[in-house]
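Lecture notes, part 5. Sequence design as translation. It can be helpful to think of inverse folding as translation between two languages: the language of shapes and the language of residues. The source text, in structure tokens, appears below.
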């Protein structure tokens, strides 16, 4: 449970309608399996100890007594377990019958939550047997325990931070104001739903949307346990559709039909951080809730679930294409607005033949097409110097020609050599002055051409470079509108790939394919035998690692130790621990030391949940120290 991770499960046991002893045995089997898998919370289906489809048998005292005895058996079996189990059964309280969820742990009943909203339409007739939850909590004597009875109950671990859960039952989630919304506001980070929802065409997708949307709106984990195929099939079929979501993202979904455990790790620290940073999420108890404390040992949660090594890049082809299409739209609309506002009909782009400037050019073309402007108003300038290779120079020309934009070549070698003479720099010394003089000369050329043409200079630098400060101050760092400023390097590649796959131009497809195959480089050091000698990732580290670090630090609020922990899982087999730690240190050191460059960034469109704009996304002092972050990594 270190770093906020706990393992949870949605369970669907084998079931026989009205055979409570059998159902208790199968429930206990899955409880023990959950315990073996170090699950902290396991949730079972609605009325799972009796079966949901008992109909008028719910009014038979024999069935009610059988369900109660089944609960007693489960409570007794739980004495040897630490896992918290939530089971469903019909219970009498103060002369009425309720459809209830009961939380059990360590030989005790922690609390009982009755269903609030009873469906009485279509195939459902629950109001024939049950009454809705009472307006106020009460107490119930059950299995040797006295426990709270009502909807307003939070179950909270005394020892595991942020481990607080609350319950609702099936239709409760379908209601206009689900109880889970109140539960989350009062502190529950995990919301569990005991359900018996029959299978219908299209219904699975709707349930998936409900669960994901509720978890997203409430910044919570949501466990949904559905009744299985053991229910009566007289008029309906149940198939054990189980779901686990976290903050709007579906983490796990069972195949149907399903019996067994659906297990997943959830990150409670992330959820708590998400609520803290979102000021529209109001929280705090008004005293109306009973808080039930339970004991739960703090232990290591082994991370068994896969962790996405490319958090900015959707894994599915369709989702990835849709994201690329959306990002290019955002970028081009943003640029289009700036052109309309300034009255500019021309832009200037430094075209290197690399990934970033290629995307900037593609965005400019789309913006011009949207505004019905002549593409010749896009002035692409290639500026060869000491490190330029024939490959990138040729690609720059081919890109411009295939897109029908204006292309100019301005060799800056003489200008840079004159500058070296002016500042008394030895050109044989290939230091930072040697490199940055070229970058600043290129920016000066772009700015002056823009002045001459009445154009805007389009920035090409991306989010990953800005995070690392891999940009020359007042060089490629500066522009009049930075279209790539919020696009990470791992996603930049896919933007280029998307256009290559969807373009109708074979010439454009060929050159984009070669751009994708070209090593990432600023080309500021002399080439060796015509080949790029300065590979960025050899210097600052792999961008796939840095993008992963950036996402988990800023988006998930993870500590350095936690970032290191999840990175080891995500990149197992690709990088050893020492390599990950080395580049993680580099990331934090550069992220803090280079903030001064981000503090004066040009405007640029936000495209995702992680951005570094000083005007809203990251307000950070330029002289903040990285000491605490780096010291945390000293333990490794």
């Amino acid at each position: 449970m270190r770093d906020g991770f706990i393992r949870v499960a949605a369970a669907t046991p084998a079931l026989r309608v009205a055979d409570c002893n059998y159902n208790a045995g199968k429930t206990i089997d899955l409880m023990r399996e959950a315990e073996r898998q170090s699950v902290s919370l396991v949730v079972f289906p609605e009325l799972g100890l009796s079966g949901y489809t008992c109909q008028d048998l719910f009014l038979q005292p024999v069935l009610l007594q059988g369900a109660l005895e089944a609960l007693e058996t489960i409570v007794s079996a739980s004495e040897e377990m630490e896992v918290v189990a939530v089971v469903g059964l019909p219970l009498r309280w103060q002369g009425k019958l309720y459809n209830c969820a009961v939380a059990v742990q360590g030989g005790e009943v922690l609390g009982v939550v009755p269903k609030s909203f009873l469906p009485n339409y279509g195939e459902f007739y629950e109001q024939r047997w049950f009454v809705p939850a009472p307006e106020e909590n009460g107490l119930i004597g059950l299995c040797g325990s006295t426990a709270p009875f009502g909807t307003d109950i939070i179950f909270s671990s005394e020892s595991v931070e942020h481990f607080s859960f609350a319950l609702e039952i099936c239709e409760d989630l379908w209601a206009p104001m689900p109880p889970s919304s109140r539960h989350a506001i009062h502190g529950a980070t995990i919301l569990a739903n005991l359900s018996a929802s029959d299978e219908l065409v299209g219904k699975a997708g709707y349930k998936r949307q409900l669960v994901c949307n509720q978890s997203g709106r409430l910044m919570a984990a949501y466990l949904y346990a559905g009744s299985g195929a053991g229910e009566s099939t007289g008029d309906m079929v149940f198939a054990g559709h189980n779901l686990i979501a976290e903050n709007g993202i579906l983490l796990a979904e069972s195949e149907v039909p399903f019996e067994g455990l659906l297990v997943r790790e959830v990150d409670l620290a992330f959820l708590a951080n998400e609520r803290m940073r979102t000021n529209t999420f109001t929280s705090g108890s008004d005293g109306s809730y009973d808080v039930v404390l339970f004991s739960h040992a703090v232990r290591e949660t082994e991370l068994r679930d896969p962790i996405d090594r490319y958090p900015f890049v959707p894994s599915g082809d369709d989702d990835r294409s849709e994201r690329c299409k959306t990002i290019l739209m955002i970028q081009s609309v943003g640029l289009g607005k700036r052109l309309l506002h300034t009255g500019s009909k021309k832009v200037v782009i430094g075209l290197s033949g690399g990934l970033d400037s290629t995307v900037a050019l593609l965005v400019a073309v789309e913006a011009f097409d949207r505004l019905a402007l002549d593409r010749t108003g896009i002035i692409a300038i290639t500026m060869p110097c000491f490190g330029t290779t024939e490959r990138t120079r040729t690609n720059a020309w081919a890109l411009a020609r295939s897109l029908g934009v204006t292309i100019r070549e301005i060799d800056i070698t003489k200008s840079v050599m004159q500058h070296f003479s002016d500042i008394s720099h030895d050109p044989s010394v290939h230091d930072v002055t040697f490199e940055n003089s070229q970058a600043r000369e290129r920016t000066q050329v772009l700015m002056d051409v823009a002045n001459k043409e009445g154009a805007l200079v389009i920035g090409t630098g991306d989010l990953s470079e800005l995070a690392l400060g891999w940009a020359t101050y007042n060089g490629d760092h500066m522009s009049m509108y930075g279209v790539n400023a919020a696009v990470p390097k791992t996603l930049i590649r896919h933007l280029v790939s998307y256009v290559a796959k969807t373009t109708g131009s074979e010439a454009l497809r060929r050159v984009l394919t070669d751009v994708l195959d070209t090593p990432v480089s600023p080309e500021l050091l002399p080439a060796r035998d015509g080949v790029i000698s300065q590979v960025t990732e050899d210097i600052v580290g792999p961008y796939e690692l840095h993008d992963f670090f950036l996402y988990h630090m800023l988006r998930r609020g993870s500590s350095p130790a936690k970032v290191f922990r999840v990175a080891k899982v995500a990149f197992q087999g690709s990088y050893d621990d020492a390599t990950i730690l080395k580049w993680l240190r580099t990331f934090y050191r550069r992220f803090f030391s280079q903030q001064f460059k981000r503090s004066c960034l040009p405007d640029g469109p936000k495209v995702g949940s992680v951005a570094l704009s000083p005007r809203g996304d990251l307000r950070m002092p330029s002289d903040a120290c990285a000491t605490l972050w780096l010291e945390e990594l000293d333990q490794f």
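The translated text above is only one of many valid answers, since several sequences can fold into similar shapes. The mean pLDDT is 95.
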